[in-house]
Amino acid sequence: MIELKHIEKSFGDRVILNDINAVMEAGKCNLIIGASGSGKTVLTKCMVDLFQPDKGEIIYDGKNITTMETDERKLLRQQIGMLFQGSALFDSMTVEQNVMFPLDMFSKMTLAQRRKRVDEVLEKVNLTGANKKFPSEISGGMKKRVGIARAIVLNPKYLFCDEPNSGLDPQTSLLIDKLIQEITLEYKITTIVVTHDMNSVMEIGDHIVYMHQGQKQWEGSNKEIIFSKNELLNKFIFASEFLQDAKQMRMMEAEGKQF
Ligand SMILES: Nc1ncnc2c1ncn2[C@@H]1O[C@H](COP(=O)(O)OP(=O)(O)OP(=O)(O)O)[C@@H](O)[C@H]1O
Ligand SMILES: [Mg+2]
Question: What keywords tag this UniProt record (predicted)?
Answer without folding.
Answer: ATP-binding, Nucleotide-binding, Transport
